[in-house]
DNA sequence: TGCTCATGTGGGAGCGCTCCCCACCCGGAG
DNA sequence: CTCCGGGTGGGGAGCGCTCCCACATGAGCA
């Protein structure tokens, strides 16, 4: 009980394999009644082209891998980053008739499997999301002869076109806003320093403080809500007189707000708070969170565009998207 | 600049294509020094087998699709169900050298794409996670001539082997526990009734109440924390004298505990609470949550086993895994 | 010495498809 | 009536691989 082949379709329609192939691929040089006959045969037999045979000759698969090189705990968290990227990438690639294949690469073994899968020619290209410095995948994938683009600047210097948002600039704008508010002791809760976003946002904070002659007060979290709460308590112990805090992501900012409330500090009267990411929850905190928005969907679309340009042999240069300060009530 | 072929490897090693193929596929009938020569040629050329050509002849791809037919908001939520299934399925299939390809099918268009992808022979089999009654995928996939198994009983009657946990039995055990505690007015917060888990857990609740001559008090949530809080307030309005509540999942139970606290009810003294799922957070609620544990990883492993049996032409009968009542302090 | 037989190796077909190239048909022009 | 040319259709090669079968080689035994 084998699947019907193009040969069978052609025989049933009384035409050659070549003509049947033309109909399947929508070529216009086929006479209408022949086209109809072939179409009928296809429907009757339930014919579906064998993708292996097709891609053997075309050297294309029309599938794109989206490799998420993060531990599952982070991928499946409250942070909507990954779900937005996945949805948006699928949407963009559907428009050009390509299928997204999602692969999670957390452990060393899964890295190896992903690499083998891609080296085997299962996909035409790779979109990589990898935020950690120690990640071996960016360099490993760039060695394979496969078009690769990255969401976010790769942590290691490697020849991969990428799309990123302006983390440094966004952080600078946020801290400058706090300075403009007349705040004197501006602390920060930084993200993990083995992640590119964590590094860049801290750099932005430092740039502004340095220029404006403030002292920096730093605590480091790991981008989770809980770590934000812990870091905030730490900061309050370190410098009880602080009157502002720039938090490197909204999830930690939510935790920080909670710690501030427990410590009896009013926001923004006693302490102004600015977050980063503009997640959904930022609108519903008490008070609503001032934060830096970066356009995830646009960034993803730009990444897809970059990959398509790679297919077309066009030049693919890194893209940096601007961020926007969303002023609510917390600062 | 093409990828090297087996032909090239054979030529470089001074052997035939057949022998080179034997080495690549680890057959033992090759003389050691020839094996070494071929291996050296492979390494020098950086040869990787072309998967399209291979699967064209073997009729296998060694890839398995894991189709998650849920909206991304649910997949990427606090509920660790999906991340556990994905991780566990990958782990199990790695052991038999198969690659998991993850596909999200939320919209009607993505259903169509997934169907086409599978019909095109990209994968050897499909693991389906689909909880909603209206979902067209189970029947659509079962029509294709592809081995399909399901995580959870399909909502529509369809010829797909599945692995499920004993939702009805688990709910019965939970409610019987409340009855045994001497509780008289036992309410429930049910899950969405278009989902199989929501239905079954409500059935279990009704079975026990009916047998033990209690009155049923039902509110319906949608498995989110917030909906649990809302439903609990609703129940307290409906019947202020209730002294126990069975909640269809832990996330809603967390919300319910919050509402009970706000209403000034002590748990378990005034109101006993039992949840379902035994998520991580259930240990850290105040008080820790009594709940029904079902083994997600084991269920996933059983599902993988079912699929492998399908490949081996073995009989594949539905598997129902037992649940376990975890008694903590809330009931 | 001649035969068998196990062990390794090579030749070649064929998986299902696309696409190049050529043959054919028909209408219109000379 | 012949010839030409554009539009249609078919033949066939070949994508890179696996696997069946034939065959070479040398050890072991009569």
TrEMBL record, chains A, B:
Location of the HTH lacI-type domain: 4-58
Single GO term (MF): DNA-binding transcription factor activity
Keywords, in A-Z order: DNA-binding, Transcription, Transcription regulation
Record bears the keyword Transcription: yes
Coiled coil region boundaries: none
Domain of life: Bacteria
Protein name: LacI family transcriptional regulator
């Amino acid at each position: 009980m084998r699947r019907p082949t193009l040969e069978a379709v052609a025989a049933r329609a009384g035409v050659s394999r070549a003509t049947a192939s033309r109909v399947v691929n929508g070529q216009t040089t086929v006479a209408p009644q022949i086209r109809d006959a072939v179409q009928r045969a296809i429907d009757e037999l339930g014919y579906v082209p064998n993708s292996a045979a097709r891609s053997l000759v075309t050297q294309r698969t029309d599938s794109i891998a989206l490799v998420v090189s993060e531990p599952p705990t982070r991928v499946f968290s409250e942070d909507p980053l990954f779900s937005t990227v996945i949805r948006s990438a699928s949407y963009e690639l559907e428009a050009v008739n390509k299928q997204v294949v999602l692969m999670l690469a957390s452990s060393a073994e899964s890295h190896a499997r992903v690499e083998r899968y891609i080296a085997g020619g299962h996909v035409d290209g790779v979109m990589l999301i990898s935020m950690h410095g120690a990640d071996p995948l960016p360099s490993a994938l760039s060695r394979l002869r496969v078009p690769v683009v990255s969401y976010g600047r790769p942590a290691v210097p490697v020849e991969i076109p990428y799309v990123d948002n302006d983390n440094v600039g966004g952080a600078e704008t946020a801290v400058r806003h706090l300075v403009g508010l007349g705040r004197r002791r501006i602390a920060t809760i930084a993200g993990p320093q083995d992640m590119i976003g964590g590094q860049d946002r801290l750099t932005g904070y430092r740039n502004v403080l340095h220029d404006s002659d403030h002292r920096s007060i730093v605590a480091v979290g790991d981008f989770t809500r809980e770590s934000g709460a812990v870091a905030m308590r730490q900061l309050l112990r370190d410098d009880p007189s602080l009157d502002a805090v720039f938090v490197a992501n909204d999830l930690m900012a939510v935790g920080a707000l909670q710690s501030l409330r427990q410590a009896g500090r009013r926001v923004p009267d006693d302490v102004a708070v600015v977050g980063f990411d503009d997640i959904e929850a930022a609108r519903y905190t008490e008070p609503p969170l001032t934060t830096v928005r970066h356009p995830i969907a646009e960034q993803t679309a730009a990444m897809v565009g970059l990959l398509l340009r790679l297919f077309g042999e066009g030049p693919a240069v890194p893209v940096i998207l601007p961020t926007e300060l969303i002023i609510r009530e917390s600062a």
